[in-house]
Amino acid sequence: MENNQNKELRIQDFVTSIILFIFGLFIIIGASQMPVSSSYGGVKNVWYVSPALFPFIIGGSMLVLSILLGFVAVKEVGMESIKKRVVHFGDDGLMGTILKERNLRYIAILSFFVFYVYLFIPRIDYFLATVNFLLVFMSIFYFDDYSLLKKLYKFYLMGSLIFLAYFILNIDHLFVLIPNFTDYLFMLFIAAYYFYTKSVIRSSDLKHKFRVSLILSFLVPLFIVPLFKYFLLVILPYEGVIIKVMNLIAYDILGL
Description:
Layout: H1 2-32, E1 38-40, E2 43-45, H2 53-77, H3 79-87, H4 94-99, H5 101-120, H6 126-143, H7 146-168, H8 181-200, H9 204-231, H10 241-253
Antiparallel strand pairs: 1-2
Helix pairs in contact: 1-2, 1-5, 5-6, 5-7, 6-7, 6-8, 6-9, 7-8
Transmembrane segments: 12-32, 52-74, 104-121, 127-143, 155-178, 184-201, 213-238
Keywords: Membrane, Transmembrane, Transmembrane helix
């Protein structure tokens, strides 16, 4: 029984590696269209201050890790077992296939990255977008509870689709006189996810895991954003309300 579970997990790892590889490739392709070096006012910027650096690092890391994940999966279960799983994929119908735990996890992972990279990063303060991505991603998969996965993913998906409609319909332009209005709205989304998650988790173990996820979700961007912006001088995709506060502290108070 345990061997079958391990085998199933390795097959899921292989499928996940394909998804991550494709997405990493998209990030690399997108980053390659950004200027690697440029000049402004007669001063030439070198490659390590290019806005393409961070996406290259993320995309490259995803490619390497996805290849390693796929290699380990094939090594442990063999390609034949993986082929059999692919052949029987979809036997339960479209919705039945989608709602299976392993398939819903794949869809959730893919949609998290798509919303993060293509919807939120270009339009939301980079710090806030990263906090949201890490909090949702870590809390859902750290819990390792399928019923919670469905509830939390549904909540996240509804919120993300509302923001998608918000940008498509240019509703943000109606509040142009309110500085950083969209960032404040996004803070409400993060807060709503936090309170909703607290309302649906019951056990002390899950509450502890959620606290860990919450702390890490803030600590990681608190380290990454200053490192890339103030020390590597990388231009971040979108600098909103939080990064403006960081700029105030870094430039006006600390004199960096």
